[in-house]
Design goal:
It contains three helices and seven strands. It has 107 residues and is of the alpha+beta class. The chain has one domain: Alpha-Beta Plaits (2-Layer Sandwich), CATH 3.30.70.240. The strands form two sheets. The chain has a five-stranded antiparallel sheet, covered by helices on one side.
Amino acid sequence: MLVIVVENVPPRLRGRLAVWLLEVRAGVYVGNPGRKIREMIWNNVREGLGQGNAIMAWTTNSESGFTFNTLGSNRRIPTEWDGIQLVSFLPETIDDEELAGLAPDDL
């Protein structure tokens, strides 16, 4: 099983993904291609991503039963811990208005 989720990608990439996979929700694609087709699909995602982001998860013979790859900027980043792939969160960014309202001791 293969699942690809894309956000903020060009319509052309979404159309390409719909050729190989079933779009079950907006930006969520599922299917069951082999390894070579999965790699070809991911290369197409990499080339057509633009300013968006994507994640691809597929079943594999591992402790968790799946693995995943990500592309683009996102607060969630893959982290390996004891041989298991997990997700960690980057801290939220503070915009200039919030920064102006903080006292020096708050930083």
